[in-house]
Design a protein that fits this description.
A hairpin with a 4-residue loop joins strand 1 and strand 2. The radius of gyration is 14 Å and the shape is globular. It is built from four helices and five strands. The protein has 140 residues and is of the alpha/beta class.
């Protein structure tokens, strides 16, 4: 198993997670989204520090399995990741991961705070995306 960086794509914020050779997905601090300044600078810093050999990006299929405009945004983002970092990118179905992350956080002490950290939710979703990928490849 190589190091993998999980990404929950977002316009204002992107959730991140990381798994090393042990194959355990752990949340990282969220970074600015693609419409915010510093998005790729922040990603570059994470890549420099974590040294992933693979990106795993949540792919937002519509509930009926079709590809919509949001998925096309992710395709453009994936192209930019490949161009900037020259690393392979795996796209994995992310339907309902944010909902599941909200439920998971709600059940924990972190989720009981009145002012929820949105970045925490995004990174929890990225962790679910990466975990799904690892499990689908029998890497976890």
């Amino acid at each position: 198993m190589s190091n993998a960086l999980g990404i929950d794509y977002g316009r204002r914020r992107m959730g991140l997670s990381f798994a090393d050779e042990l194959g355990i997905a752990m949340p990282l601090q969220a970074v600015p989204g693609v419409e915010e300044s510093g998005c790729f600078d922040a990603l570059t810093e994470v890549v420099r520090n974590r040294k992933p050999t693979l990106f795993v990006v949540g792919y937002p299929f519509n509930m009926d399995g079709s590809v919509g405009s949001r998925a096309k945004e992710v395709d453009a983002f994936v192209d930019e990741l490949e161009r900037r970092f020259s690393l392979p990118v795996e796209k994995i179905d992310e339907r309902l991961t944010t909902y599941q992350a909200k439920e998971d956080l709600r059940k924990t002490a972190a989720g009981s705070r009145k002012s929820k950290n949105r970045g925490e939710l995004d990174s929890a979703a990225a962790t679910l995306i990466l975990r799904d990928f690892l499990e689908s490849r029998n890497m976890a």
